[in-house]
Design the sequence.
């Protein structure tokens, strides 16, 4: 990973970004990072957060934040609020989502029995597609061996599982964040992935961002990626000096400055 200072490209106009521990910092979005979102928007960048956070949160983000749209629940859907209308796009039908929720309830019960200290994430009631198990947001941090156990439970049920900085998210279906990024580019930006990739950057912080680190020509992580380096096969190209929202602010300032130079 190169230091962000070495980033010299001037061709970026499209930003996909993780939220937790990338824009947020110690569980809050601080003024500098929220301001950075607005500065990017006002500088003409197209911004699309890509998150494991639930549908209920994404409804607010799409409506209130200075974003083009938002991809939520690890790529299960995107929401876009444009011209006074909320568009909600899902890979799965309503029936598929309902049937998958029943299967996830069985996995949930097994995890809670087998991993003391783990809990269903407090934002689960806002979710439509996945099950989020908290290992350090509202519970005392669990050791890596317990995180692995949670992941194993999802896998043995035939579900996908991804580890973020706070939750293990599991779901049935073959979607992931990157698949939905490509669909978003085609549906909402009228861009093939090849064309989008030549002007896009992704910024994230943890293993559940790996499909993006692998597929974006240009990818960045905030400094806290260092904690997860051993879990990653595909590292981002650049790393910020600062953690979380401070790193995101550093990233935003770098992009805005390089745009002005051009
Ligand atoms: Mg994150």
Sequence:
């Amino acid at each position: 990973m190169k230091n962000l200072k070495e980033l010299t490209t001037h061709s970026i106009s499209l930003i996909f970004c993780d939220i937790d521990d990338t824009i947020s910092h110690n569980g809050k979005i601080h003024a500098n990072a929220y301001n950075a979102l607005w500065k990017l928007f006002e500088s003409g960048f197209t911004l699309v957060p890509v998150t494991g956070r639930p549908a209920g949160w994404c409804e607010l983000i799409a409506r209130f934040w200075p974003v083009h749209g938002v991809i939520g629940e690890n790529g299960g859907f995107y929401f876009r609020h444009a011209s006074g209308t909320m568009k909600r796009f899902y890979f799965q039908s309503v029936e598929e989502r309902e049937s998958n929720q029943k299967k996830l309830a069985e996995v949930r019960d097994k995890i809670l029995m087998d991993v003391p200290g783990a809990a269903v994430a407090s934002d689960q009631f806002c979710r439509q597609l996945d099950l989020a198990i908290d290992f350090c947001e509202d519970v005392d941090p669990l050791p890596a061996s317990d995180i692995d156990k949670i992941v194993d439970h999802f896998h043995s049920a035939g579900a996908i599982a991804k580890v973020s900085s706070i939750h293990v998210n599991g779901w049935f279906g073959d979607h992931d964040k990157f698949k939905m990024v490509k669909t978003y580019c085609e549906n909402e930006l009228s861009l093939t992935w090849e064309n989008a990739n030549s002007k896009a950057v992704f910024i994230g912080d943890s293993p559940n961002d790996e499909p993006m680190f692998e597929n974006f020509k240009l990818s960045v992580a905030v400094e806290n990626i260092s904690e997860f380096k051993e879990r990653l096969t595909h590292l981002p190209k650049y790393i910020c000096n600062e953690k979380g929202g401070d790193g995101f602010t550093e990233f935003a300032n770098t992009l805005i400055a390089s745009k002005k130079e051009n």
